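Subject: Protein record for review, amino acid sequence with backbone structure tokens
Category: Structural biology, sequence-to-fold work with a learned token vocabulary.
Format: Residues in single-letter code; tokens as whole numbers, each standing for a residue.
Body of memo: The sequence and its backbone structure tokens, given next.
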Amino acid sequence: MTIEIKVPVLPESVADASIATWHVKVGDKVSRDQNLVDIETDKVVLEVVSPEEGTITEIMDAEGDTVLGEQIIAKLEQGDGASSSKETATKAPSQPSTSSTKGKSVEIKVPVLPESVADATIATWHVQPGEAVSRDQNLVDIETDKVVLEVVAPADGSISELLAQEGDTVTAEQVIANFSEGAGAAAPAEKEASDTDSADENDALSPSVRRLLAEKGVDAANIKGSGKGGRITKEDVEKHLKGGDAKPASKEAPEAPAALVGERTEKRVPMTRLRKTIATRLLEAKNSTAMLTTFNEINMKPIMDLRKQYQESFEKRHGIRLGFMSFYVKAVTEALKRFPEVNASIDGDDIVYHNYFDISIAVSTPRGLVTPVLRDCDALGMAGIESGIKSLALKGRDGKLAMDDLQGGNFTITNGGVFGSLLSTPIINPPQSAILGMHKIQDRPMAVNGKVEILPMMYLALSYDHRIVDGKESVGFLVTVKEMLEDPTRLLLDV
């Protein structure tokens, strides 16, 4: 049976998206819940997973193509894909086994940490002792206050000993494992030559399932898979989280009191370092600033019309999609020039006025909210802004943000509209003095020249530190952003 692979339904404020990365090609065998393609919107990256086991028979849109919600982008022929496992098994004996001899031992160390970071935490071990790995394969994620560092294998071989466990605090260049070059390198061949059940077991944790397990802190060993060969699916994880796995146990013990059936449970897990840092900074912002929020609304029709008119030619010329964020950044930069107090910060009893325009862009990542900085926005064109935001979003998604990407920033833009937020009061990102919240674009009846028109409207929210920014400046700043966005020609004419 042929199954159509479609783009997910996009948020209302997102008009279209781009194919970022295909993880499969035509002819590839795929398992259920395996990530097939990453689809990128203005601010978030959506994963499209395989609904069933089968083979990719057709890919209709290449990387970089612009796509719409629910557009068909590929076709999958449903099947068990057992032939690929058999082919691999027949090829396995021909692989050389000389590399299985034990090689020299190498110490796996924590990387050198940035100057402002004293220690780090072992977040996730991706391999276990005795497991064969290839050169440059990620062994462990090490989490600092804001960035995640990957430690990769120096050569083909295997981990012989773990010296630090997940959750342990470590310091720079601390030895956290011993690695044997060449040891166990024949293990993959042995696994490929095993029966199909073992192959299914290896595929049990697809990328989306692994991510869900990591986010919820669930051990895969505690979940019974319902997929072929015991494969764990996302539905199995969700059922486990809801306590669904406990139901069969009640049949084994019918004499148990009724009160024990459906017993409520709790799970206590320590905060990650990033979550602790976010909590500390948010509390600091609430306690150490005189924070106030003012609101306005924007008619987004002029920008939507302009974007629709020039989207294709812009993408052909610059090789990147024209999104809404470049308009927001441009409008904010012009408003910061006119209201320098909003671009300033308090340092003790001094006010520091910044004569440059570094804007932090709030990015949601699997580990929490981070605010990488887009620098010198006044010197960037629309294409430069779009390219910079895309680069920061991809780094955030992949945990590749460096400390330099996160330090500095005079003002923050956060766009909760991509998640459906209609209105919010964003919290200032210290030591900055203000943050602008963009929201969902929604059709609403508006009075225009004495008549009612249905227009795509969006609420703006500016939270600011009243110690440095007065009401006059905050309202003037927000009105300037509104005027720039409702009449984009102002951005070109500087009026």
